[in-house]
Amino acid sequence: MPDDTDRQKMERAIGRLRSAGWRVLREEQSFGSGPVLVFPQVDRFFNDDGSLRDDLSFEWIEGLASRVQTAFAREGLVIRIPLEQESGVAVCVADRAPDSDLCRIVQSFRELEANGYIAEPDFSLTTSGGWEDVHQRVRGDLKAIFWISQAHVDCFDDEGNLVDDLPLQWAGDAAAIAEALRGTGLLVETPEIADITFFIGPVGDEDAL
User: Fold this and answer.
1) What pLDDT, in 10s, does the model give residues 13-26?
2) Whose CA is closest to 202, among 150, 164, 160, 154?
3) How wide is the angle at C-alpha 175 spanned by C-alphas 170 and 180, nearest 5°?
4) Do 95 and 156 touch, CB atoms closer than 8 A?
5) Which of 6, 61, 133, 158 falls between 20 and 30 A from 80, CA-CA?
6) Phi-psi map region of 154: left, alpha, beta (phi>0 left; psi -120 to 50 alpha)
7) Is 72 within 8 Å of 92 (Cβ atoms)?
8) CB-side exposure of 42: number of CA atoms within 13 Å?
């Protein structure tokens, strides 16, 4: 929603992670077992209108960094986070113009979701596990698109920009999916048959697609 403030977006992202089993703590609280997010007192990072004034650093412990990055990207927020670590310091970036590739891809997924697709970024640890979850959720025609966590680590950098071609598992209308993905401004390779994955890649990587 365009009128939502950065603070509201951050609270929704944190709520999404909490719903997925993450505990959210303050710096003075004991950590225990993960996955855990540890935040400072955040008021000083926001202006009175709820906009993010300064980069906001927080810790994550014993969890997939890609899940943190993706949860914030769903709200249009850029997270700088070392994707190959399981614990460390993440930064919610105040100056995020332009938005990351991840933010734009997630927005295209939202459009597909509105058209009846199960559209899930960083959906599963394995392709087979992702399809198993899709089939448990599907009602009616099989319409889905997702990528797995290892692909996220391999294809995005620490700020959520593509560094390699991201393979997307899919089912449904290839033309409709391609149209939504092209709205990101990234390069899209559309499969000619259903058994081939979509690929979406960084601009300037035409030779790879």
Assistant:
1) 999 999 999 999 98
2) 164
3) 80
4) no
5) 133
6) alpha
7) yes
8) 20
